Amino acid sequence: MTREYSKWPETSWLSDSVDWRKAKTVAAGVDIGTTSAQAVVICDGELYGYASIHTGTDFKQTAEEVLAKATGNSGMTVKDIGAIGATGFGKINAGYASKSLDEVHCHGKGARFLYGPEVTTVVDLGAQTVKAIRLYEWDRVRDFMMNDICATGMGRNVEMVCDLLHVPITEIGEKSLALDGKTDPEPVSTTCYNFASTETMGLFRPEYRAEPLTENEVYASHLFALAWRILGVIGKLQPLDVGDIKVYEKLGFTGGLAKNSGVTKRIERELKTTALTSDWDPMLAGAIGAAILASE
Amino acid sequence: MDFKKLVEDRHEYAKAWKKRTGGKVIGWFEPYFPEEIAYAAGALPVRVLARHEPDYISDKWIYASCYPVRDITNLFLSGRYDYIDGIVNVEGCQWMYNAFEVAANNNEKLFNFYLFLPDYTDAPTSKHATRSEFQVYLDRMEELTGKKVTEADLDHAIEVYNTNRMLLRRVNELRRMERTPVLGSEMMNLVLADQVMDKAEMNKLLADFLAEAEERAPDKDRIRLMLIGSETFDTGLEELVEALGGNIVIDELDNGTSYYWNNVFPMKDRLMALALRYLGRPHCALKDNNWRRRPQHIFELSEDFNIDGALVAKQVYCHPHGSDSYAVWKILRERNIPYHYFERGVKLPADETSARLEAFMNMLKPGLNHLSGWHKAFGE
Q: In A, which residues are within 8 Å of B360 by CB distance?
């Protein structure tokens, strides 16, 4: 049986330093995406627990399961939570939610939580959509762009390619950067997710090239194409060409693909910037934003 | 009157009209088509509207063009337009020209006419070239219908069409109101129905609609949006916006306001009057390459109708609007009008589009639509 190389590890965590029963406000957020679901619990503005799991075929069950994992063995029930915000493509399945919220505002808010108030450009790298979000200095969304039609540049594409190429999803990014000092080869097609995957498979065929690419170079070629597609979405944001403001200086990534350095480093390279970092998992941004917005 | 139903039943309507009058039905493809000439010749001009149906045919003829063109090709080749006697295409989008060519080449009996209209609409000789083309087209219509078109016929047609445009403008004026009682989907259905019906008959329906709409109570507070971009042939986007708490209060679409925006000014030379009307209408993205009057028109509409933001929606593979988008973005940015740009096909992906629209509307007015009606909108 083929190993599922695309399966990233599910996680959950519960704080042992916070007593939720003493908290004045308890809020939760769930982000039910197409391939992953996250839930967080925030007590008095502090992260108390979270879970990140694969979205199964039953979205309703996933919504129940992810919140149950985020509350763990704390004894907390839905009734104990003051406000629950739901976001993501599958948010309608979170029947326990008190508010349904849009993904752009949730990721914007979540990014401010992860990266601090200075973040002004947020790029959510999801499984099915890429959202480039520009935030005002104050707490409002100024502009956003989403990808159109094609899924090249999305997390799901990386999952597919990892299964096709038999490379673990947690390793493909770093491998694509280990090129022994060589520069990136040309990117594969950025027009279509299927074209990109097929072309990448073809790169392994030595008869097509005078100098066959190494395995890492093939990964680099594919991830460069993804980064290129994402850059196209970021590039459509309204420019901040005012005085000396550097547009991408305060950039933060969210979503599952934010953990793929092969994609994020290439975006940083093209934008001539270094993204902000956080101790928390960037996949949690949507759920964190939903929790904060629901409690406001 | 259910105008959406009228659009859906347009084939039956045209067949019944033909049976009743014995006249010819002329299908037209591009927005610069001078309908008045066909009408004066006793024909019924109907716009060829795209409708998505299972399609096993169009790929053979047209590959990778926009959905409306493929759908129109499919409708012709699968016999939906068998009742049509002739087709006319006006110089414009090359994809639409392909659909016209395929339709013409697959039916030798079909009257067809390709009407040249200069891209340089404001050039000194453009009006003469257009008038001359209109004359050639008029002569061909006379041959087809066997009717000699008199000046009185042209005057009558111009009168009927001017009345029609005036009525649509009056309905559109209601959309300026704060909490306008006219929804964007309603207006779009009106305009689509208008393009496939006998205008004299439509004018009566429009007058009734106007009288009823003027008496309506104001609607609830909604986010006021403008729709810019490629032509659309259904009201899916408008309805989604409305379900999420917004309203498209003005559009700048070829088959929206641009269709009825300006009238024919009476002149002794009727064909010249028509030429000036069509050359002077708000331009489509393709005809606006040289003078760029469209961005200013968009800005004026946005001011007049007091919008909160604009949606710029392009059909996938629509090259005129693809190349034109940058000029539209530029003016919206310069005038500080929030906008959201996206691509769409004939079928709207509901989840993806609603994700955009929710976010955009929350961006414009946080809290107003806070998705309280969200579950209801999706039948939950």
A: 144
